Amino acid sequence: MINSRLRSLIRKEFIQIRRDPRTLVLIIVIPIMQLFLLGYAATNDVRNIPLAVLDQDHSSAAKALLDAYRAADYFRITYAASSEKELRDLVDRGVVRAGLIIPPNYGDKVNGDGNTTIAFVLDGSDPTIASTSLSAAQLIGQQYSTKILAERMQRHGQTLVMEAPIEVRPQVWYNPDLVSAYFMIPGVIGMILYALTSILTATAIVRERERGTIEQLIVTPILPIELVIGKIIPYIILAIVNTLEVLIIGAWYFNVPVRGDLMLILLLSGLFLLSSLGIGIFASTTANTQQEAMLIVWMSLLPSIFLSGFFFPIEAMPKVLQWISYIFPLRYYLVIIRALLLKGVGVSALRDQIIALTIFGVVIMSAAAKRFRKRLD
């Protein structure tokens, strides 16, 4: 039996929980969010992979081959490239994940009982998508080749021995061995920048308020904007140091290539920090305790982890979640950091992601700083 003193203590704790409705709501909402995110986003069953086609033949046989790839739900033909240079540019920018190259004499060889080879280019920067694309491309090619072979045998007789008319020859770019560390370690950089700066910034400012030292800073000649800058600069420096640390260890121990310009990597990482710092400052203006600040940051961190492509391919998610993923800055930064490290691209290939990060950073930081100044007043 529970004695009266213990019952009173339990009742007191429930009353305190009820008096803090924001924390109670966060505690209830976070498990529900995890349930739906893991239920829908945690999947590697990739479909509708964006595919670019370089058709150098333009024959009816080439169109029949494309129809075979179109009929399978693994690929979605989104671009018709006019040259190998354009095809490479599409893969570099992440617009497509794979490319199909049909040679100029494809139709003549297929219709004339000859053999031919088609090239299938894969973006190896995401091993999960690349593995699925590789298996699907070869399987579709083999099935279509078997169909053509059966038609030839009907024309020439069952006793005629023929080789496979079509060979699909895959070419995996940027990560030929499909090493998963090449995909995960750049993602770790994004998670470190996001989690470290947002959580530490939020808790540091709330800690000042809990200790009563924030009032001492307010009565000093320091301007609100100077207070904000002074609080976040140490965490910017720590985040950049951690980025360099992960880059060095990843390149030295895991052999992750660093093909992009280091200064560009640091510059765009700093651009991403505007968003994460803004989220941290916003959480600090909303929360009254460090615990609340942590929970608020986790409310944005959880969907960012699952919907940004950090663990699971965005292409494998339901359409609704793919649309929602566009509101998370981490999605754009992961594309940037993986492209810089593995592909060695320049600013032109990352233009869309840079513009998106700039808009997010300016809007989030401006709104958070404005709210922070009002809270100080």
Q: Can you describe what's shown?
A:
By secondary structure, the protein is α/β, with parallel strands linked by helices. It folds into two domains: 49-173, abc type-2 transporter like fold, CATH 3.40.1710.10; 179-376, no CATH class. It has 14 helices and five strands. A five-stranded mixed sheet has the order 2-1-3-4-5, sandwiched between helices. Helix 3 links the parallel strand 1 and strand 2 (75-80). Helix 7 runs antiparallel to helix 9. The longest helix is centred in the middle third of the chain and has 31 residues, at 181-211. The protein starts with a helix and ends with a helix.
Structural class: alpha/beta
Give the biggest sheet. Answer: 5 strands, mixed
Q: What global shape is seen?
A: elongated
The total count of strands amounts to 5
Task: Please compute the radius of gyration using only Cα atoms.
Answer: 27 Å
Average pLDDT, to the nearest integer?
83
Strand content: 5-15%
Distance between the termini: 52 Å
Q: What string gives the helices and strands in order?
A: HHEHEHEHEHEHHHHHHHH
Q: Number of helical runs?
A: 14
Task: State the main characteristics.
377 residues, alpha/beta, abc type-2 transporter like fold, 5-stranded mixed beta sheet, 9% strand
Outline:
The protein has 377 residues and is an alpha/beta fold. It folds into two domains: 49-173, abc type-2 transporter like fold (3-Layer(aba) Sandwich); 179-376, no CATH class. The protein has helices spanning 4-18, 21-40, 60-71, 84-92, 106-111, 127-156, 181-211, 213-218, 224-253, 262-286, 290-307, 319-324, 329-343, 351-376, and strands at 49-55, 75-80, 98-102, 116-123, 166-173.
